Amino acid sequence: MDPEVADLDVINTTLKSGIHRVTQLLNHFNMINTRQLNVRALFEEAQDVKDISCRLVSEQETLRPIEFVADVFEDIEDVVCLKNICSVEYSLLPIEDWSKAQEKFELEQIRRKSDSQKTEPIPEAPTAIVKSFKHVENQAKKFNEGKIRVVVTHINDLNSFYIQKYTTLDSLKEMNGAIGKRGRKRAGMEEFKKGGIYGVSYQTKNSCHWRRGKVIDIFNNGENIIYKVNFIDYGNSQNVTKDRLKELDLHTVKRPPFAFECKLTNPEARVFDDKVHLLLPQIIGQKELYLTFMHPQSSRVTVYEVELLVAASNGGFISVRDLLNNTSPLVPDAKDSLLLTELKLFKNGKRFTVGQEETVVVTYVRDPFYICVQLSHNVKILQKMQADLEKFYKDTPVISCIPVVDSDVIVKYSDEFQGNWHRAKIISVDVASKKVGVFFVDWGQSTVVSWSNLRLLTENFIKVECQGIIVKLSDIERLDTSQNWTEEATDFLREQLNKNKECRMVASGVEPLQVALFQLCPLSDICLNSLLVESEHAISTGTISQTVFWPHAIQELPQDDDDMSYQMMKKSEEVIMDGYEDIHLMTGLKLQVYVIRFDSPDLIYIKFAKYKETEDEMHKEMQIHYSKSKLKTRSSWKQGEHCIVFDEDHSDYFRAVIKSASDSNNYVVYLYDHVRELKVSKKIIFELDPYFRSYPCYICKCRLTNIRPAGDPGKWSHTAIEMLEKIFNTYTTFHVKKIEKNTNDKMIGVIMWYSVTTPAKALQPAKIKYVSINQSLLESGLAFSASSLTNGPSAGTEPNNCDDSDIEKNKKQNWYDIICEDERYKDADKPDMHDMSQVKEEICIITQQSWPKPFKFKSKEFDATLTCVVDQGIFLIRTEDVQNLYLDVETEMNDAFESATLLSNANSTWKVGDMCTIAYDGKWYRGSVLELLEDDTVSVEMVDFGSEHVVPIKSLYKNIMFPDIPTLVNKIQLYDVHSSYGHWRGEDVDKVLRIVTDQVRVEIKGDKDVEVPLAEIYLDNGLSLNDMITQVCPHMKRRECSVVLGSVDDLDVSVDDMSKDATSEKTSAKLNGGYTYVWVPSSFDEKQKMFVAGILKWDLTYNVVLSSAEDNTKTPEFIRLCETVQMHVGNQANLSKIEIDTACICLHPQKNTWCRAMVYNVDSLKFGFVLAFFVDYGMVEMVPISSLKEIRSDWLEFPVHMQIAAVNVQLLQNNQAEYMLAQLNNLHGKSVLVEVVTEVPLKVHLYDDKALCYQKFLDNGIMKAL
């Protein structure tokens, strides 16, 4: 051999020897637990091997240089590392203090001990060195008695199972990977001998991995030679054939096994069931497992007696033996230094004092005595932490723990509002069922979860203290103190708390924390403690729960003023507030107003506060319209003409009336919305759009009634006017009550009040006192008392005690009808239905003959409460506003009559039409006499229900309340429902009563202002009552094409008498594959408000997905339907008939769930694909035909809210097609008004208020309307 040519065999032997030596060193250090490690000697040994020449070259140019890569020496600091053990103190020994002899001796000892195949004797060492080494052994022995983290790889029984050290898992994985990459040689049967160690393919049902295995038996099963192998690194065995074996290199063969056979120690000699070891995987699975050797480790021991310990949630350990005995209490060992010390959450450090106020978010309500709140300013911090929890534990491998009472953990628990991962405290443990009770420290709820849902708490999530604060409502008590809070009380409280995201909380006591909770409202907060008492869910035990409305400080108290008029105002104010009880304030209807301008107490211009929002919206629209539109002017204007004027001082447009011509170029105009005149050039006077002229003028003229000037008759003094001006400039909140009317001057006489607020204290509401301006002028001597100039009562008398002539004269008009009869003011004549907290009325006796007529409907579509069903398809309903008003009236009446002393009705005489109050079933109702019957009975109508009753005459009273409030019920009649008999039968009404719901949706067809409008009525499940009545009553027909919206099988009605024609009509009326639709399009209907769920483009046609509901996919009914579909879809056959509009079940490609769908387009059918329209989500997706299945008939009956309609336009400029689509996509998610052009096919126009949504494209010639 050429001396310059490397001997590859020698190099290979050298490399193998060095690598084997270092590898054995590393493995040995992995196994022992010595406290002394000569890192330098180990590094030098590794460096010697690394420095061996290992780049091989060849004279053949075709061969690339071969380089030996020793991965084990890369990043040596990562391979050899020191584990920090908390219980051990470390120190560095200087090099100069090292004993070279001792150093070499220790390294040699380690080498000899690790290389078991070598038997040469260990050289003797000096006495000092031996003494030192014994010290090392003692230290190692002591450490062996500690806890080592392990994993269990195979279980035969409690006396035979195999474990691996957790620290060796990476080495084992690397070794198995190398075995898998090693090639297989051709070999005969003699190469795989009994007792040999080979690479074995370990196969399971779902995986295949290469491992080391020792052949323990060889036999022939008649077909193949079978090798029984034991996987020495795992402990289990398997029979394999020859093709699953491969030879291994000597180094891999000689590596010691990674698995150790152990048995569970049992010092108490407990008797376990024979199959108890089957529970072991359940106990130790997905948990940190530790092991303690019961005896010193020795190479002579084949089976180690050990104690298995599972990590507990408090940082300690639980014995597996205790867990196998289900009845044993879980008492963890003392916390071990190998684990982190127990992590505890910090308790909420917030401290409260009586009267302290905080804004809070309520997270959980168990009952009024157990409410969990969070401080609002901490919510964002908590939300960030919850997001971090979700991210950390969602992506972290499952490592559970054994629960210990009173320890803190992380819990996986899904809540709609609080998320999926929560910090919690363990409050109970059930070992038998493996369940644990936890308390969520951040939001107050307690629940029971499985052990597998627990995770160990980490340091990242203990920095934020517990956010949940438990409080109880103060000054209330249960109706029955011997019972728990009723479900009705708790549900009522939750319902009220859900109305507001935040609440105001005031502490009224500590230890325990007792509070008052308030709903935040603009003017006055609502005390929930009092609301529970008022709703009869609790009783009051203190002052806090006796006041519902806690007003804010509406305005700051005025500063002192030396002006005489101010001093007179304050003096009269003190006198009135100290001793004056204003009877007018306590009775009748009063309205909040704004004072716009005044001339004297006899002429004040006001606006009603309830119309401010409407007027502001009108003004805003007007500015937008006239700033963008091309304005039309005129060369001349006539007196009295309406116009729009641009006020340069305010830079705004205002409505006005031409008052006079100043000259040929200028006019004097009257801004009637602001009660002022303006001289302007005709260049800035523009024509008034009819839309803005349709809005009424909200200005109303009034005068202070029952007073007259002191001094000159008919002339108010300057001091009186100055005092009035001072009042209007100082205060901002005013109320009026109508006392008289003056139709000639279109003016009303009123009593006017301003409010003075005493600032609120912590546990006391702000007190608002009303001061009568009329009385202030009297007290200051600037006015004299006077009777009303028309028919109003004098000061000090009740407004309802009017004489008969006045009542008879005005019985057809209410006071709010006389506010102003001018056409401009006709919309200001309705009482404020949203201010009924101020409606108070005394019981009185009047000669009025009839109740005022009901309110007119404000719109054609609304939700309503059904009160009564009468003959001929007539229903009596209340709109939402009227329903709220009725509830207030009912409460006031019942409270007043229960405590009132009523005049005897024994000798009362009654006649038909008399107004009365009816005592019926313990309640009081407004009524009218219909008919006098025999036996001292009378037929009456409860006017707020529309129902007739026969009652004893002694239950009627002349005493009434609220004579000026109209009857609180309206009549409607079913639209397009006709009886073939010409009339309704009694049994028809009975059938209606059995299917109708209390809450209905009403759509008026035609004129809404007639006495009995025609209407389509929809029940609370979305089904049309008009259609349903034709199903349950065969003689009822609809002349127009009707659509059945539901199955009669779902109704609680007998259908035996239904004809076959009615049944066939029901079947044929289904649309689009048999789905039932909430919205039935009709070209005869007015525009419908719909939501745009999607925009589709097909060729040059634009389609829009319309929905009658903003989102119907979150209702419990729909969720149940989805669950049913997922559960039973496997029983459905593939769709056999694939045609457009065929209903089916389809696998949604994005959601990966089965959803209701309809075939939308079949152009790609020959390629195995179709377009499917998912009817509940408004999406069109391309799907394979294999994803289509037949739909069950009952799945069709759940109402569909979405339909596809074509936009009835034609694109004229094809190059604008994509731009047009992008603009239409802006409508997605918005509500529009839909006008049906044709029903089949469904074509529509889309409107934004009054204009088409695409009007600008029509104007620009991009498209045209069809």
TrEMBL record:
SUPFAM superfamilies: Tudor/PWWP/MBT (SSF63748). One of its GO terms (cellular component) is cytoplasm. It holds the Pfam family TUDOR. Residues 191-255, 404-464, 636-695, 909-966, 1137-1198 form the Tudor domain. InterPro entries: SNase_OB-fold_sf, Tudor. This is Tudor domain-containing protein. It comes from Zophobas morio. The lineage of its organism: Eukaryota, Metazoa, Ecdysozoa, Arthropoda, Hexapoda.
